[in-house]
Amino acid sequence: MNTVIWILLLAGLAVTTAILTANGGAFVLIVLPPWRIELSVAAFVIAVLLMMVLGFFVTRVTAGTLNLPSSIRALRLGRRQAKAKEAVLFAAEAFFEGNYARAEQAAQRALTQGESVGLCAVIAARAAHHQRRFTERDQYLESLHSLLPRDRILQLSTQADLLLDERRHQEATEVLRRAREIAPRSQTVRRLTLRAQVLMRQWDLVLKTLQTLEAAKGIDGPHADAVRRQALLGLLARHGQDTKSLRTFWRSLSQRERSDRALVISAASLFIGLKLMDDARTILEQALDEAWDTEFAALYGKCHSSSVLEQIKKAEGWLTLHPQDAGLLLSLGRLCLHQSLWGKAQNYLEASLALEPSREGRALLEEMGTNLISRIPKMRPMPPDLEGG
Fold this sequence. Notes:
By secondary structure, the chain is mostly helical. Helices cover about 75% and strands about 5% of the residues. It folds into four domains: about 80-145, Serine Threonine Protein Phosphatase 5, Tetratricopeptide repeat (Alpha Horseshoe); about 150-220; about 220-290; about 305-375, Serine Threonine Protein Phosphatase 5, Tetratricopeptide repeat (Alpha Horseshoe). Helix 10 (about 205-215) packs antiparallel against helix 11 and helix 15 (about 275-290) runs antiparallel to helix 16. It is elongated, with a radius of gyration of 45 Å. The termini are far apart.
């Protein structure tokens, strides 16, 4: 905009000068006693323009000379800031490359120059942690608190994460408690809390924290499913020592959870361990009717329920649909062996071994052979009076 104004002013001055000098009679008289200076308008205009240009350059040179010290300081400051930013970038690159010693040194340089202090303190602390230099790590975290007192969550979340990595669960839990007081809705703090609860096997709290994270969309679906499965497996194992407690907990699960493969195997095994064969049978039959699984079928033979013959009939029905399932054949051999159906047991066990050789199948065949030998009546010794003929 200033350029346009100057162009218009100069154009106007040129037009005015041309009009005044058109007849050649216009002049400018300058009286400075005892001198008198008479100039044509054109010469006067040229002189004024030259004086303006000269004044402009003199003003710029004078201003530049007076501002030279501050300009030099600004230039040096800009160079330092550029170097500090380069140090920050180098520290981040070195850290992600796994060169923790160089990352820490670069972060220290940036910290001394006050560039990106939060990021650099975190990089330095994590780099020191990976080098097992925990004293220096804690010093960096304390410096982070002093440099950024308002951003307390950054320091606490980093400290908790590194303490969990060091397996100092109780200390990390205390740090996270303070972080929740400051920022109760922080997703980072919630995720770290979930991690701490998993490591400490606090399965009831894990499920509550997981529910909160899912409601706030702070965790992705597959990760949430994996954590929930781990928590439910832990709770199953905890309840697996008591019959009533195990039944109550299993019935409290949703249909989706009772269909989970890992939970089905764990629950059925626990019920079998407690001699609750009918419960284990029900779980496995429902699971197999929903989706076929050879591991479920192999486990089914260990459920010697109150009606093993019905189990054999059920399993033989499955066999028509899955004739090449080695696990199902093994279960049928086990069930027939339990009912002393020696011929059928042998056929099923040999068919299972032909499809998939297993130590368990061979052991069952050996057990069946031992049982058969033990059932053969022993020969009685001949009376003494008949020994001689």
